[in-house]
Design a protein that fits this description.
The chain is an all-alpha fold. The protein is built from eleven helices and no strands. The longest helix has 13 residues, at about 1-15.
Amino acid sequence: MRQTLLPIALLSICLAPWPALAQSPATSPAGLAASCEGCHGSQGDTRSPQTPRLNGQTREYLLARLKGLRNPTNQTINAIHNMLGPVSSVTDAQMSALADHFAAQAPTQPNQRGPAHDRGAQLFAKGRGEVIPPCASCHGDKGQGVGEAARLAGQHGVYLQDQMEALMIAARVQGDMNKHVWNLTQDEVRALAAYLGND
């Protein structure tokens, strides 16, 4: 009985109105963005390693991700807990404005160096045989993002590692990404995070 009630209770909490947006009269992109910045940081450049940076992210990815977050079956528990309320309070037009706003902010650049960084750079550019394709083929040669393929460069390394691990076990469902990361080793996950990240 307890196992049946837990998902229902969790969903009821997640569907409750999100105060920052539900009670805010601001409808301009900057006003809406200010509500997001409580968690995602000023101009989307958060200092929290578990929270994704939005600044300089591609507009197409931001918009697709915001809309995708409305479907809790494809998300991690953290994403459901933190984002299902906010996205249920935002219209498609407001999502588009938010995507424009954060895409226009200056992106954070990667800053890590060392052996793990170098291994990550190699894997990102060339992949590993037929098992793992080059990340650069979708995400851009420097991880800058292309269309709906996210900008990875300058993201928190901790967040990147968490997301790769979630994709590996389908705790997050994201198109072809699940099968692309399936065969990554833990060392490769850490190396990619070291190459792309800024913590």
